[in-house]
Amino acid sequence: MSTHTSGLVRDLDVLELLGSEEVFEQGGLGVQDIASETGRDKAQISRVCRTLYEVGLLVRHPVTKKYALGHRLYAMALRTREAHLAALAQRTLLELVVQAEESAHLTVLRGGGVLTVRTELSQHTLRDGSMSGVTLPALRTASGRAILATYSDSELTAWWEEHGIWRPPPEDAPKLPRETPQLRRLRRQPGSIRSLTGLKRVVRRVRNVGYAVSVGELNPNIVDAAAAIVDPTGTAVGAIAVGAVRERIGGHYELMGEAVTTHARRISEILGSAVAD
């Protein structure tokens, strides 16, 4: 029996494209631009946009005719687990910024990548702004390692078989919005974890100390530390992460680790209290 998923994938391609920061700053995109960016037929994209507009997932500017994300999508997003987690984490992230004097991040694991759900910025930023809101390769991040450390050995093996080795997308696959050259290099070039055995070795270290560290995996000058947030069942639902310039932090990674562990535990306790109520 056919599942008719191709139409849904096409719709998601359009929504993903219109959700990028660049498109938002442009006030949306017209049908021709959307078709060009997604590699799809213009008439097909026109029908997709019209349907999404009619159900409130897109809005259309009356003069420029550009499409942008609509109010209904925003209302739905507010009811996601990520939105709830972001609301709970805001105060904790701000406290971590004050403590560490660096930007603090709430992240979630999605497939083979880590997505930053919320960031509270320090007075100076560590990463290139173009990376903001982008899903980063999980194995290169402290957040990904911290979350994967909560997995069982069988879960780790299954995750590695699906996501551990970079595989090029099909030639006819639509290009992803905001796929910068820097991000493409990160996806294709192996980091320090190059095998399932290596991943399990890192995971054992994380379990022993309670937090994960990634040194220069995303940016040669930056050290990241992260600790997992768990719900009352012990399942990791995200991570709290903070980064620092390597020259400033020196070899004192434990200070960063203790900070993220404290704040991740605090959010985990809040989640438990919310369930108990």
Automatic annotation (TrEMBL):
It comes from Pontimonas salivibrio. Residues 65-273 form the IclR-ED domain. SUPFAM superfamilies: GAF domain-like (SSF55781), Winged helix' DNA-binding domain (SSF46785). Residues 5-71 form the HTH iclR-type domain. GO terms for biological process: negative regulation of DNA-templated transcription. Keywords: DNA-binding, Transcription, Transcription regulation. This is IclR family transcription regulator. GO terms for molecular function: DNA binding; DNA-binding transcription factor activity. The lineage of its organism: Bacteria, Bacillati, Actinomycetota, Actinomycetes, Micrococcales. InterPro entries: GAF-like_dom_sf, HTH_MetabolicPath_Reg, Tscrpt_reg_IclR_C, Tscrpt_reg_IclR_N, WH-like_DNA-bd_sf, WH_DNA-bd_sf. PANTHER family: HELIX-TURN-HELIX TRANSCRIPTIONAL REGULATOR, ICLR FAMILY, HTH-TYPE TRANSCRIPTIONAL REGULATOR RV1719. It holds the Pfam family HTH_IclR.
